[in-house]
Inverse folding.
């Protein structure tokens, strides 16, 4: 039984270049994930300002990332990885080495610019996996990558807190800059392919956006937004429920348990013989989230949320897998950048909205509203998704390359 689940992953890791790509991804994402908490700790600790001021800096960095990701992807499509990585790595090094000496107003503006020119590790790794890994293995590769993102998400904040405690906020920001530089150098050296015929002189001109930026693509981006929103909202609700029951000491363990459930779900999904529709997975996740607010104690709430957490990594994987199959290869970088923007917006929106719901109505209603609103979003996206299926079976599908039949999504497709 174990071999049956492990074999798909062995086959992916046996593909030349995959191990190096995933290793660079898991290490390179750690300093990026640590950015928000590092800025917060610096503003609150070193500058001695409030959490509102810290939140504004974090929001500026997030807004910059959301705005800059599609542009970075388009430049990668047009010029390749190295020019984009060289520019963004230099910007990161300059900003993070100087951030500790900037006044608050300059830090706020610099955080936005830094976010716009963030090292695009997330999108580059996913774009390159779509090239390196054959279509029939892509879902497993994306699942493995999503699982490694969870690992980076566990390590990044922990490193930020430990470094801030040991060496202070300014030195921690310099450490983040060095981490960004190391990640950029690694990507520059590895230089993974972003398209077939990597290194050739063939001119890849991206097709007009109207040919691939369809209503169906925006439906897929809405699904990605919903997944990120739900995962963040659930974790905030868990924290609030535990705090309300005066059991804060269990917060880390419970969040880790929720993350492990997502890892387990991703591991199982990557070993399945066929893909599932991202709308189906996300809709089920929303349906499982909505009623758990009826549960009483935080212990039962934690257990009740495990099924929703189990679908987190599979739903995330399904969105990027579907995107890689439904967008022409010459525009894949920009499309993956839009996907990153959707995820970033979902993460950013979850904080204030969930906080408002928790403060006004309580954790139970917050979970209900989160689940029901995301379920409604899936229902509104369904007609656009079904329409895309008809388009893909016609001329556009033949023109831009068909998805491998073994990886066709089942369920709502």
């Amino acid at each position: 039984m174990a071999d049956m689940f492990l074999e798909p992953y062995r086959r992916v890791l046996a593909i030349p270049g995959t191990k190096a790509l995933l290793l660079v991804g898991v290490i390179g994402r750690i300093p990026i994930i640590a950015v928000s908490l590092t800025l917060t700790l610096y503003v609150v600790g070193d500058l001695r300002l409030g959490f509102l001021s810290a939140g504004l800096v974090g929001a500026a960095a997030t807004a910059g990332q959301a705005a800059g990701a599609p542009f970075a992807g388009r430049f990668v499509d047009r010029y390749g990885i190295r020019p984009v990585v060289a520019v963004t790595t230099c910007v990161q090094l300059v900003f993070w080495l100087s951030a500790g000496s900037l006044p608050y107003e300059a830090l706020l503006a610099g955080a936005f610019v830094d976010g716009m020119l963030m090292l695009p590790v997330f999108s580059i790794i996913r774009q390159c996996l779509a090239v390196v890994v054959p279509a029939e293995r892509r879902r497993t590769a994306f699942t493995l990558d999503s699982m490694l993102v969870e690992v980076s998400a566990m390590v990044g904040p922990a490193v930020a807190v430990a470094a801030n405690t040991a060496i202070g906020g300014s030195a921690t920001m310099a450490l983040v800059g060095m981490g960004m530089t190391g990640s950029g150098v690694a990507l520059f050296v590895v230089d993974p392919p972003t398209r077939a015929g990597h290194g050739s002189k063939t001119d890849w001109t991206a097709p007009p956006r109207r040919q691939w930026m369809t209503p169906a693509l925006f439906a897929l981006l809405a699904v990605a937004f919903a997944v990120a929103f739900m995962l963040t909202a659930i974790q905030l609700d868990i924290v609030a429920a535990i705090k309300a029951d005066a059991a804060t000491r269990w917060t880390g363990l419970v969040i880790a348990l929720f993350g492990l459930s997502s890892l387990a779900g991703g591991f199982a999904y990557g070993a399945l013989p066929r893909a599932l529709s991202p709308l189906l997975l996300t809709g089920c996740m929303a349906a499982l989230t909505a009623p758990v607010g009826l549960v009483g104690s935080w212990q039962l709430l934690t257990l009740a949320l495990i099924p929703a957490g189990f679908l987190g990594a599979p739903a995330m994987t399904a969105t990027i897998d579907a995107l890689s199959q439904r967008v022409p290869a010459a525009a894949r970088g920009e499309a993956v950048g839009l996907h990153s923007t959707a995820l970033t917006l979902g993460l950013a929106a979850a904080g204030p909205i969930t906080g408002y719901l928790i403060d006004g109505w309580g954790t139970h209603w917050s979970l209900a509203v989160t689940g029901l609103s995301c379920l409604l979003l899936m229902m509104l996206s369904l007609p656009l998704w079904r329409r895309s299926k008809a388009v893909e079976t016609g001329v556009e599908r033949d023109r831009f390359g068909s998805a491998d039949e073994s990886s066709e999504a089942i369920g709502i497709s």
In short: The chain has 17 helices and two strands. The first strand starts at residue 275 and ends at 276. The chain has two domains: 16-194, 210-413. Residues 16-194 form a domain with the Growth Hormone; Chain: A; fold (CATH 1.20.1250.20).
